[in-house]
Every structure is written in C-alpha cells, then in structure tokens.
Amino acid sequence: MDLPRGSALAPSRHGEYNVTLMTQGCYVHIPFCAHKCAYCDFNSYGGHGAGSIERYVDAIVCEIARADCDGAIVDTVFFGGGTPTAIPAESEARILHAVRKALPVAADAEITTEANPGSSDVAGLAVLRAAGFNRISFGVQSFDDDLLRGVDRIHSAQEARDAVRAARHAGFENVSIDLMYGLPRQTLPQWVETVEQAIDLGVDHLSMYSLIVEQGTGFGVLAAKGRLPLPGDDLTADMFEFARVRAAEAGYGQYEISNYTLPGRECRQNVHYWRNEPYHGFGAGAVSYQDGVRRTRLLTPSRYSVAALAGADLTAEAEVPTVEQQMAETMMLGLRMTREGVDLARFRQRFNVDPRDKWPVEIARLTSQGLIEVEGDVLRLTYRGVFLGGEAMIAFI
Ligand code: SF4
After folding, report:
1. Cβ of residue 392 lying under 6 Å from some atom of ligand 1
2. Range 324-394 has CATH code 1.10.10.920
3. 161 CB less than 6 Å from ligand 1?
4. Which of 196-225 are b and which e, b meaning 16 or more Cβ less than 10 Å from the residue's Cβ?
5. Which member of 24, 110, 228, 320 lies 3.0 to 4.6 Å from 223 by CB, making a disulfide possible if both were Cys?
C-alpha cells in the first residue's frame, strides 16, 4: 500500500476512512486590488484605503493565531487574492510570521505570493524574499499593451518584464507567470508573441488560462449585450494548442490542464488541491478543508475584519461533503493533473473502492471515446481528453 509521503490511515470523525495527511497546504487571502479588472469574479475589491488594509491585516493575524493546529506539517503556504502585493510587503511578512507561529511550517516549505507587476517594486520584493517567500506568481496575462488595457490591467508589458527581473534580483529562484488567451480582439500572432516573451524571460512556471466570461463581471455585462468581441472557439483552440506545443518545445511539461513547468517546479500548493487533500484557509472568503469540513469565511473584508478582531465565528458557510461527493471531487480534481492523474491505489486506500468498480459504465464510455486512459494504477486524461477536459470530469458528478 503506497501512502503519500508522511501520511497515515485513520478513520475520520465522519465515519469513512480517510487519508490523514501529515503534510498539508495553507492559503491566505488578501482581497485588495488597485481596481477591479473587467473579467474578474474573484473575491477582490478595488480602492481600499490604508486604514482598512491595516485593520484587515490585524484581523487576519488574529484569525491565524486562533488556528486549529492538528499537528500536520504545513509544506506549502500560498498568499493569493486579490493582489497580495497591494498591501505593504511588511504586512505580508507579518502575516507569514503569524502563520509560522501558529502552524508547523516545514523548513523547506514552498511559500508563494501572487503579485501584480504594477504593484511590485524592488524594495518590496526584497522584503518578501527576506521574510521567507521563495516563490512568486505574477499576474501578467499578456505582453501586449493594448490587450492589457482592454482587460483593465494596471501594468504595462514592460513593467511585467521588469517585475520578473526584479524578482530574480531579489533572490526568487522560483518565478511563475499567469497568461490569458481568448481575450477580446486577441489574435493568434499576439498570443504567439506573448508566449514567446514569457519563454524568453526564463520563468520556471507558466499558467495559461482561457478567458471565462462570468456573469456579474464587466465582461459579463458586455457579453449579455452582445458587445464583447471574443475570438471564436476555433481560434481559442488554436491558442491552446500553440501554448501546449511551444511550451513543450521550450522544456515546460504540462502537468495540469492550464499549467506548465520546468522540471521540479510544479506548484505544490495546487497539487494539494488537485489531490483533494486538507488545507488551512485564512482571510475574507477563504475556504479551508479540515477534518472533512469545507468552511468558507465571511466574504467582505469589512465584515470579516470586525468578526475576526472580536474573536467571533467567521463561518459564512460550512459543508461536510458526503463520501459520494468526496469520491466524485477526487476524480474531477485528479483528472486535472495531466501527468499524475487519479492515483487509483490512493483512491482505493481512501475510499475502500476502486473507481473502475464505482463507475464501470462511465469509465468504459470515456475510455472508448478516447478521453481517458488507465496505465497501471493511474487514470488520466488522454490528449483528446485534455482538450475536452470538462466532458470527462463531469461524468463523475
Ligand atoms: S488583479 Fe486579479 S484579483 Fe484583482 S481584480 Fe484583477 S484579476 Fe481580479
């Protein structure tokens, strides 16, 4: 029986057998941004003053100090948002210090901050590096200034290049950038140029996402009025295909539908999520998954701050996924990992059933459609399955 490194098998409080992991991730949410991007449906807010940011930092430090530490080693910490670099670097350092004080963070933990190239200066990056952040993920999205303006980004292509170089200068050996394709009026040559520039910068990790137009965003409103000139499905598919091929040529292996990495630079925090493993979560709207309970915190920074500073319950929503839900989620999330896939041995060990016995009809159908394949104890998407990823994943819900 192969267990993930540092894990043990134990019955959970909710009856079924679970893998009790001795390592887990930790997510910290910083919900502030310079302003709201047209496509964004994250829990993020533009235009907050220094006073409310300071109060939020005090509040999240309070929440972290009350963390329920179950003894599991934290081997990844991820500051996401929003824009973590929208708050002073010293404040991020203070929050990380609080995490280290409250939880057993491994000496070799991956500690990431997301960053906006428009709010990352050399001095701030040096503070972050000195505080222990060892991975930085820039939301670049494009190296085309017209496209950047079109999606309301605050930075230019030159600022993005400068930010990556400044991060290297500050001592970040592990640098990731996010790029988006399928943007309004985006052409294939523009996308090709963006990917080439990312590769030229020599970053360690590339996240390349297709734009998804969400209701309630600026783009959602325009799309509803028929005023969002998106590239068609075929052109978007060509962009995806170019990204895959070019990344592979440049030595970036695809390990998840939208993520590519140089050897050994996979985002370990995301691997925790995709394996459907427990994690801590702190901050407004942050989700944690501990002891079989998925808990979402109060969404708005103001309500969250008041409650956290008063030591009150921060829960906006709590869900205890049934075993059936846990199994379906484990399949869906595992299939996102294009190399690792769903580890059938780990699945059997966790749920006492093999997915092939649980979903014989679905697995036979998806296999005959060429969307998934089983190799030894790994069930993963095929090349065609990656392209049509959603189809295979929803089969298990
Ligand atoms: S910077 Fe990121 S989190 Fe903030 S509004 Fe833009 S897309 Fe959303």
Report:
1. no
2. yes
3. no
4. ebbbebebbbbbbbbbebeeebbbeebbee
5. 228
